[in-house]
């Protein structure tokens, strides 16, 4: 199987539970959503070439032709892992679960923890690769971000991950103009599946006219979520503060 890739590089994880850990990022082209704050160029077919870092962390890249085969991708990844120990390989995008055929070939070949960064809306696709995934960072997408309600999809997705006893946490991007009823619904979805699941509240990085959330407001929302969930953390996109990729 093959897929169009955007980039492969080594950096620190900037978001969520594993912030600061050295990870290898493998970014797929294409997404099933169009979030209003998206910072990735995702339209299918827009990347003729994939940027591959020359040595891990050097931030100098060479280009390889898309699409890339699964075994070819495995070779690039394992070369990075031999050069530098990484906490995990982060499969990101776009939405990596649009490429489950390739992932089923690739994941068993990776000699490191496999970290899935996903929008959490494709439970059937998750089921296809779940045995080979170690860590799941699952977004909860608010209707105001995507223009669609996806509560049942999110609930099924989270339930699958919890029942498979995966290291899973949920991440919710908070804009300044948050619809609070939807925030409460997101918290309820997590609480109804498994209240011990960590919830990360990530203040949006303002872009495309989406307003940022005030610091006091993040605390208010954390307090509101803590009424239903025991572990709620406020963590911004720290890689931007550190000027990391
Ligand atoms: S799910 Fe992620 S990659 Fe897809 S549109 Fe939303 S922010 Fe962008």
UniProtKB/TrEMBL annotation:
Its cofactor is [4Fe-4S] cluster; S-adenosyl-L-methionine; Mg(2+). Its EC number is 4.3.99.3. SUPFAM superfamilies: Radical SAM enzymes. Pathway: Purine metabolism; 7-cyano-7-deazaguanine biosynthesis. [4Fe-4S] cluster binds at residues 31, 35, 38. It catalyses: 6-carboxy-5,6,7,8-tetrahydropterin + H(+) = 7-carboxy-7-carbaguanine + NH4(+). InterPro entries: 7-CO-7-deazaguanine_synth-like, Aldolase_TIM, rSAM, rSAM_sf. S-adenosyl-L-methionine binds at residues 37-39, 94. Mg(2+) binds at residue 40. Pfam families: Radical_SAM. The keyword Chloroplast does not apply. Binds 1 [4Fe-4S] cluster. The cluster is coordinated with 3 cysteines and an exchangeable S-adenosyl-L-methionine. One of its GO terms (molecular function) is S-adenosyl-L-methionine binding. Belongs to the radical SAM superfamily. 7-carboxy-7-deazaguanine synthase family. Catalyzes the complex heterocyclic radical-mediated conversion of 6-carboxy-5,6,7,8-tetrahydropterin (CPH4) to 7-carboxy-7-deazaguanine (CDG), a step common to the biosynthetic pathways of all 7-deazapurine-containing compounds. Homodimer. This is 7-carboxy-7-deazaguanine synthase. The gene is queE.
């Amino acid at each position: 199987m093959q897929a169009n890739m955007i980039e492969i590089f080594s950096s620190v994880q900037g978001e969520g539970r594993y912030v600061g850990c050295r990870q290898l990022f493998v970014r797929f082209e294409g997404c099933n959503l169009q979030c209003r704050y998206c910072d990735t160029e995702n339209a299918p077919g827009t990347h003729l070439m994939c940027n591959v870092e020359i040595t891990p962390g050097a931030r100098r890249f060479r280009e390889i032709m898309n699409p890339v085969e699964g075994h070819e991708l495995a070779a690039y990844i394992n070369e990075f892992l031999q050069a530098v120990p990484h906490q995990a390989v982060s499969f990101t995008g776009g939405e990596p679960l649009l490429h489950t055929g390739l992932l089923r070939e690739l994941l068993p070949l990776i000699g490191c923890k496999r970290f899935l960064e996903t929008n959490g809306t494709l439970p059937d696709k998750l089921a296809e690769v779940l045995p080979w995934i170690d860590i799941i960072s699952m977004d909860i997408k608010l209707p105001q971000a995507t223009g669609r309600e996806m509560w049942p999809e999110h609930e099924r997705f989270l339930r699958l991950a919890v029942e498979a006893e995966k290291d899973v946490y949920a991440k919710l991007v908070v804009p300044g103009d948050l619809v609070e009823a939807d925030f409460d619904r997101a918290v309820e979805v997590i609480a109804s599946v498994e209240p011990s699941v960590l919830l990360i509240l990530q203040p949006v990085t303002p872009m495309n006219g989406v307003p940022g959330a005030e610091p006091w407001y993040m605390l208010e929302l954390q307090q509101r979520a803590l009424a239903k969930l025991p572990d709620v953390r406020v963590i911004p996109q720290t890689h931007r503060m550190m000027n990391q990729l």
